[in-house]
Design a protein that fits this description.
By secondary structure, the chain is α+β, with helices and mostly antiparallel strands. 34% of the residues lie in helices and 37% in strands. The strands form two sheets. A seven-stranded antiparallel β-sheet has the order 1-8-9-2-7-5-4. Strand 4 and strand 5 form a beta hairpin. It starts with a strand and ends with a helix.
Length: 151
Amino acid sequence: MAAKEIAINRKAFHDYEILERVEAGLVLTGTEIKSIRAGRVNIRDSYARPQEGELWLHNTHIAQYPGGGPWNHDPIRPRKLLLHAEQIARLSTKVVSEKGLTLVPLRLYVNDHRAKVELALVRGRKKYDKRKVIATREADREMARALRRRR
């Protein structure tokens, strides 16, 4: 069964240089997974932070489920990420020891009835780096167009 993408963090691809990617599970309540399946999620300003040997996802907005009633969840509560202990240790040491590195979710999806998040270890780009990336992308596109025209 293919994964169903729920949310993509397009801003992260523009603002950060992606160094490493890892897949993590999420600890959710019943109403949260229903809202995720309905596509009512925003991961644009989200980030992951290590706390006491665990990784927590902050600033992820999962809208309240309309049929949840009094059992609804807090939309922006921190959510625990599920990873292997060695993955948590490796990512935590990189984030804490190296200045300028952070963990950002790239996309949130449902795979085999489980919510997953693709985390990336990233370094922020400066404004001139962003311009350079856009310029090289445009140049590559222009070359591809020229090659198609020649054929």
